[in-house]
Design brief:
single chain, mainly beta, Thrombin, subunit H, 4-stranded antiparallel β-sheet, about 0% helix, globular
Length: about 350
Amino acid sequence: MKKIFLLLILAGLLLSGCNENNGENDFETIPEMSIETPAETIVYSAITTSATIEKTEAEVTEFSFPTEYEYIGSFIDGLALIESEYIDMDRYIGFIDESGEIIIPMIYPLSYKYYQSYDDMSPLFSEGLVNLCNFEDRKWGYLDATGEVATPFIYGFARQFSEGLATVLIDNYDDETREVYRSYGYIDRTGKTVIPFQFENARSFSEGLAAVWNEEYKAGFIDKTGNIVIPLIYYGVNDFSDGLAAAYYGDDWNTCEWGFIDKTGKVIIPFEYEMVGSFNNGWVSVVKDEKLGFIDKQNNIVIPFEYDYASNFHNGAASVRIEDEWVTIDINGDIVIN
């Protein structure tokens, strides 16, 4: 059985021709690691941005990490996401600082098949750490703003930190059944487990509570000690916003409709809507009879149900679509931009 040798060579030679730093770099060498595999040997370097894949048939394939990016995001706390073009169905991402220096090289794959939902496709720094998927075995972990490893890359999936905690996924192997069981729990910034791995799914904390799912895939909410504060009885929930959370409830999937609950689990807005958004400045978009409108926290209709789509209100205006035409309306429902 051959081994995969993961060699992270942190040297400044490649970068010396790209920026003026007198050949000086503050990179720290990361210790050599190895993982057993029967199929191939991979050797790669974070700074030389290359990987060699030696097949069992002695066929050698060179893989080069991208060095040029085609997308750059907005700067947040001095760093901006950079993203390469597609390479073998993957994009690779890293981060640069405001001087254009690459702080985190583009060696981390960004691909739909490694993310669990569209909401997870935002590898941005949150509370000083960023959740990333590594190249060699597609495990997840966190880096800090200097590119140093904050928690090991050992998780099956990891979401952004929120309110001091992050939800991560681990795989547990049962020796008796020989099956792998996946479960979610919560860690702090040091990687310490704060809430045990026991949930079928789990989302980030919002307004002090987090949505979790049990083995029957019923949802409810826990607090930061892991106590269940809203029973896991719902077929779906959204995060808390403006003190309320959307919940999907009924006798079964076929009879479920959306309503809103408060942090005690009390029903504030009845379960009577086909789709809902999240409250923003006291209003929320909801769908009834296949048309969209807006209601307030007392379930009063503030914008009639006559739209096919609508954005949230921002600075007193929202974009809406009616009869295949996009217009902008104000808080009275009057068209201000046609």
